From TrEMBL, chain A:
Matches recorded under Pfam families: Response_reg (PF00072), Trans_reg_C (PF00486)
Ranges where the Response regulatory domain occurs: 8-121
UniProt KW keywords: DNA-binding, Phosphoprotein, Transcription, Transcription regulation, Two-component regulatory system
SMART domains in UniProt: REC (SM00448), Trans_reg_C (SM00862)
Organism: Streptomyces capitiformicae
Gene Ontology MF annotations: phosphorelay response regulator activity; transcription cis-regulatory region binding
CDD domains: REC_OmpR_MtrA-like (cd17626), trans_reg_C (cd00383)
InterPro entries (alphabetical): CheY-like_superfamily (IPR011006), MtrA_REC (IPR047673), MtrAB_MtrA (IPR047671), OmpR/PhoB-type_DNA-bd (IPR001867), Sig_transdc_resp-reg_C-effctor (IPR016032), Sig_transdc_resp-reg_receiver (IPR001789), WalR-like (IPR039420), WH-like_DNA-bd_sf (IPR036388)
SUPFAM superfamilies per the UniProt record, alphabetical: C-terminal effector domain of the bipartite response regulators, CheY-like
Protein name: DNA-binding response regulator MtrA
All copies of domain OmpR/PhoB-type, residue ranges: 129-228
Lineage top rank: taxon: Bacteria
GO terms for biological process, alphabetical: positive regulation of DNA-templated transcription
Length: 229, 690
């Protein structure tokens, strides 16, 4: 188990004390942290370190966290967890929309942080070969690919998980809370904005017309379900 | 306790009697008299009469309102009424004068005419008498025919003097024999008897002088002439035989009447014009004054509505212009001050918010370091291990405090947003109660839920409602002294309510309002054994307010307390009442136990949220309410349902304070569960909830 959990984590934070402390905690949990304190250098550090996950502080000197998040997301689907001191709606939503998979609000407990990181890395534990169909999409779970008419669609791991969760039970309507639990690994109710934002992002990639979704269908007042195959 | 879940739809029946029929402050004395006497239905006893009055009053009300509200109407109406009075008075005086003048001249002329006539008649009678004596014939023989023809001659000759200017009538003296010769005669088709009033005839009979009176000349039917007013002068005169008869001169007054009616008509027309003109002038004049006043009123309203840049238009240098200038100056100063205050408060809020945020990064480091140390405490010596525990515990508390501060500052900044969706309060309550169970077990308290048979659905922010209820339930358990805590749900009308009742130490007089203040503690001397930030109830109150709901407290010393959260069923619907009475049915007062050495009265039991602006005081509760209601009274509630006052919008408590002696969530040895509950409250602002 621990072997699966091992992962390289890039910590992008300008507060050296916090970064060091994060390093201590992460090492203690068996991760391999690397650090960068400047938003301008973050992307280079990311390319160099090739981390399995990025811990990203939103408030950075140089480029701010949102911008860094966008840049990383542009070239990689690696999980990004934001660290934020502000939990106001706008900040969080902007962060999520710029590509972050999850966020955690300061001050947090080490256990909480580790749980989040593990939840984001957990997906590597499920290599069972499986073929799914949702709408006109074909999903190869083990191969981590989504294809429409043979054309591959690039999804981040989180978006992929979301799509797979829906596709596995096309008859079921998923509430946001259930999706939070299955995809994000939250054990109790959390911020449903996570689901909303990521469903929008997923739709923008897999839907022919994101305005009229056919793959991920909204069930008003309940949640989401997979569109008919 | 179960019995008091009886809820009635708020705001239906209870509202009527209290509502003032009209604004008493406004309006003139007349309006007040009318209102008090006629409109208010001063008669208390008879319901029929009251009904009748109400029936009469109803159509009058709009008129009364217009009258009360419109000064222009008042002034114009008053001017019209008064000028009408003046014109009428003037008219009467003038007409009287004119009539007197006209009649005086006429009477004088008539009198001289009549006197001449009487003398002529006497003279002719004397001449005739002398003539007959000379003839030497017997009087008796001739007298009948002679007198008859003589009289006819007399009448026609006398009347020939004034063609139409007067008529002559002879009537027999009532004392004398009414024979044909001295019978009625009249010139110009006049009906002799009808034209001469009876009273005059009697007076002439009884005395010898000439008398006059006003009458109407009545003509013979054959003449087909209308009767006309006239002056009649009469005298008793002797005929040639020496027998008396009555001779009347009738002077028609039709000319004078015509003149008089002409004057009347002129005066009436002029008067009407004057009245209308005065009314119009009054209207114009009042408008000159009222228009700026109305403008000022309108602008004042807009100013108070927050549009501070509104100003009056000022023209000229008159008093109105001065009013406008003064008004504008006032508005400007007001705007300046408000802006200063706003800037100040914005700066302060941002400072608090920034401080909170800046604190978070180092706090995160400290927190993580503490946790690492805490994890490793088994390897330490006892003193260091205990220190590590204290460090971790107090960090928890520090974090909650910071989170609460941030949440409060968000409310203060008006940045709190409501994410309302239909939720079943029963689920929220169950979650909260489940979360509080471990704490309750340690305290030996049993938490009971009542009224959860059917769904209690309301449009609300589940995270906030849960935070409020968790706060209330944890507080109740903390202060319940091991006795049961009852959580009751109810829905009625447009409102849903959750009441949390404990039977612990309760609240002292006046505390029910203060519990919501920031950092307030019931007993400052009491050691802070329990954790809590001192902001829990303040945040809960703000949460309730954000929903347009109420959070109210009731308590009695030693008798426990009850906290009631009332929410509108739909987000934008104003609350009119609560389905659960604020004072529970099993309160000491309701059970009649108040004599048990406990002072009654005062403000100890009534409890309201700090300074709720709706002052609808419905029940006896209100009299004991320590906080005078502010602002205008509006929403009414069923008295049985709302024994306190309630407010839809609660003004922010200005000061700091806190409920009783602790906060929700934390206390000494925190169990895993409380830790979790507390943590969730701490992270509530992170909108992650728990």
């Amino acid at each position: 188990m621990m072997a699966f959990m091992k992962g390289r984590v890039l910590v992008v934070d300008d507060d050296t004390a916090l970064a060091e402390m994060l390093g201590i905690v992460l090492r203690g949990e068996g991760f391999e942290p690397s650090f960068v304190a400047d938003g301008d250098k973050a992307l280079a550090a990311f390319r160099e370190a090739k981390p399995d996950l990025v811990l990203l502080d939103l408030m950075l000197p140089g480029r701010d966290g949102i911008e860094v998040c966008r840049l990383i997301r542009a070239e990689s689907g690696v999980p990004i967890v934001m660290l934020t001191a502000k939990s106001d709606t706008v900040d969080v939503v902007v962060g999520l929309e710029s590509g972050a998979d999850d966020y955690i609000v300061k001050p947090f407990k080490p256990k909480e942080l580790v749980a989040r990181i593990r939840a984001r890395l957990r997906r590597s534990e499920e290599p069972a070969p499986e073929q799914l169909a949702i709408g006109d999409l074909v999903i190869d779970v083990a191969g981590h690919s989504v294809k429409r008419d043979g054309q591959s669609i690039a999804l981040t791991p989180l978006e992929f998980d979301l799509l797979v969760a829906l596709a596995r039970k096309p008859w079921q309507v998923f509430t946001r809370e259930v999706l939070l639990e299955q995809v994000w690994g939250y054990r109790h109710a959390a911020d449903t904005r996570l689901v909303n934002v990521h469903v929008q992002r997923l739709r923008s990639k897999v839907e022919k017309d994101p305005e009229r979704p056919e793959i991920v269908v909204t069930v008003r007042g309940v949640g989401y379900k997979a569109g008919p195959s | 306790m179960t019995g008091d879940s009886a809820a009635s739809a708020p705001g239906r029946t209870g509202a009527r009697p209290e509502r003032p029929v009209g604004r008493k402050s406004a309006g003139s004395r007349w309006a007040r008299i009318l209102e008090g006497g006629l409109l208010q239905g001063g008669v208390q006893g008879s319901p029929v009469l009251r009904l009748l009055l109400r029936w009469v009053r109803r159509p009058l009300l709009p008129v009364m309102r217009l009258w009360r509200r419109n000064i222009q109407l008042k002034v114009v109406a008053t001017t019209l009424l008064m000028s009408l009075g003046v014109v009428l008075l003037l008219g009467f005086v003038v007409i009287g004068q004119v009539r007197n003048g006209l009649l005086d001249a006429k009477v004088k002329a008539s009198q001289s005419q009549a006197t001449g006539g009487f003398a002529a008649a006497k003279q002719r009678a004397d001449e005739a008498a002398a003539g007959t004596a000379d003839d030497g014939t017997t009087v008796d023989d001739r007298s009948e025919q002679n007198v008859t023809s003589w009289m006819s001659d007399l009448v026609s000759s006398l009347s020939s003097g004034g063609q139409g200017a007067f008529e002559v009538v002879t009537l027999p003296a009532s004392t004398g024999s009414d024979t044909g010769g001295r019978g009625r005669r009249a010139s110009g088709d006049v009906d002799p008897t009808a034209s001469v009033p009876e009273a005059l005839r009697e007076r002439i009979d009884s005395a010898t002088g000439a008398f006059q009176s006003y009458t109407r000349i009545v003509y013979q039917p054959s003449a087909q002439k209308d009767s006309q007013p006239a002056l009649v002068i009469g005298k008793q005169v002797n005929d040639p035989n020496g027998d008396p008869y009555q001779l009347y001169y009738l002077f028609p007054l039709s000319q004078e009447e015509k003149s008089l009616s002409l004057v009347k008509g002129t005066l009436a027309t002029a008067g009407l014009f004057v009245v209308v003109l005065l009314g119009a002038i009054a209207w114009l004049v009042v408008r000159q004054v009222v228009t700026p006043v109305r403008m000022a009123a309108g602008i004042a309203e807009r100013l108070s509505a927050g549009r501070l840049q509104e100003r009056m238009k000022v023209t000229g240098e008159d008093d109105i212009a001065r009013l406008g200038e003064a008004f504008n100056k006032m508005a400007q100063n007001l705007q300046l001050k408000i802006q200063q205050l706003e800037d100040l408060s914005r700066m302060q809020r941002r400072f608090v918010s920034d401080v909170s945020h800046e604190l978070r990064t180092p706090l995160t480091t400290v927190r993580m370091a503490a946790d690492v140390i805490h994890e490793a405490r088994e390897d330490f010596d006892p003193v260091t291990a205990r220190s590590a525990e204290l460090l971790t515990d107090q960090l928890d508390r520090f974090e909650s405090l910071l989170a609460d501060l941030l949440e409060i500052s968000r409310f203060d900044a008006g940045a709190a947003a409501l994410e309302a969706e239909p939720i079943d309060l029963r689920e929220v309550v169950r979650r909260v109660v489940t979360g509080a169970e471990p704490l309750a077990e340690r305290k030996g308290t049993r938490i009971r839920i009542l009224g959860d048979q059917q769904p209690i659905v309301a449009e609300a922010d589940a995270r906030r409602v849960e935070r409020v209820l968790r706060n209330l339930v944890v507080n109740a358990v903390e202060h319940g002294e091991g006795r049961d805590v009852v959580v009751k749900l109810a829905a009625a009308g447009g409102a849903v309510a959750v009441a949390v009742r404990d039977y612990g130490v309760g609240l002292k007089p006046g505390e029910a309002t203060r519990v919501f203040s920031r950092f307030w503690r019931a007993d400052p001397a009491r050691a802070r054994t329990t954790g809590g930030t001192g902001l829990g109830l303040s945040i809960a109150l703000e949460d309730a307010r954000l929903h347009g709901g109420w959070l109210q407290a009731w308590g009695e010393p030693g008798g426990g307390s009850q906290f009631r959260l009332t929410l509108p069923r739909t987000a934008d619907e104003p609350l009119r009442g609560s389905p659960i009475p604020l004072e529970p049915k099993d309160s000491r007062r309701n059970r009649g136990l108040n004599d048990a050495g406990l002072p009654r009265g005062g403000g100890e039991k009534a409890a309201t949220v700090p300074a709720q602006p709706t002052g609808d005081q419905v029940t006896p509760m209100t009299s004991r309410d320590p906080i005078a209601p502010r602002g205008t009274a509006v929403p009414k509630a069923d008295p049985t349902a709302l024994p306190g006052n309630g407010a839809r919008v609660v003004p922010r408590p200005a000061s700091t304070a806190r409920r009783q002696d602790d906060a929700p969530g934390a206390e000494g040895p925190p169990s895993e569960e409380t830790g979790r509950a507390e943590e969730s409250s701490k992270h509530g602002e992170a909108s992650r909830g728990r």
